[in-house]
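Thread: "does anyone have the structure for this chain?"

Original post by V.I.:
We have the sequence but no experimental structure in hand. Need at least a predicted one for the grant figures.
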Amino acid sequence: QVQLVESGGGLVQSGGSLRLSCAASGIIFSIYHMGWYRQAPGKQRELVASYTSGGTTNYADSVKGRFTISRDNAKNTVYLQMNSLKPEDTAVYYCNAKRFPSTNGYWGQGTQVTVSP
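Reply from O.Q.:
Generated one for you, tokens below.
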């Protein structure tokens, strides 16, 4: 049974930082492409950052220079370091694991990030 468990969300003031973690089980973590998505109220879910099994990272333009995705294959965990947070970063953040880019993959339950002005 595949499980992705996110943690680290919370309430932070504008300009602050948070670090999200996603612990995976039930998959061979090292061969999966990992990603962080977010969904704000009334908006579609969007890709924030991804880290392929081959080591390539990708970021949404809105978070470049502020967010950093990393992964620890020994701990089956992917992280999202979020710095210089803005109110528009407020959303539920979801972890995603997919074996192939074209597939939907597996999703975590989400963790709420709220950035106050």
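V.I.: this helps a lot. The chain has a mean pLDDT of 97.
O.Q.: and The two ends are 40 Å apart (CA to CA).
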